[in-house]
């Protein structure tokens, strides 16, 4: 549980530009992992789940920030 909290606090500390860059990197990694899985070259299948969840965390944080900015 501590790993998720640490990961979230790391993301909250980043700016919107940094989050966007991180999101792009994770999407690229997700694509590569899907490609490796399709060609049976994937060594660590659990990484697919981690990347998907990290992408969801970033998108949730971005939508929360945009909603908060619109409310002001």
Automatic annotation (TrEMBL):
What does the organism's lineage look like at the top? Answer: Bacteria, Pseudomonadati, Pseudomonadota, Alphaproteobacteria, Sphingomonadales
Could you tell me which Pfam families the record lists for this protein? Ribosomal_L29
Family (UniProt)? Belongs to the universal ribosomal protein uL29 family.
A single BP term in Gene Ontology: translation
Annotated protein name in UniProt? Large ribosomal subunit protein uL29
Determine if Ribonucleoprotein is one of this entry's keywords: yes
User: Gene3D superfamilies under this entry?
Assistant: 6.10.140.1970
Q: Source species, please?
A: Sphingomonas glacialis
The record, for InterPro entries, names:
Ribosomal_protein_uL29, Ribosomal_uL29, Ribosomal_uL29_CS, Ribosomal_uL29_sf
The highest taxon in the source lineage is: Bacteria
A GO molecular function assigned to this protein is: structural constituent of ribosome
UniProt keyword terms in alphabetical order:
Ribonucleoprotein, Ribosomal protein
Q: Does the keyword Oxidoreductase apply?
A: no
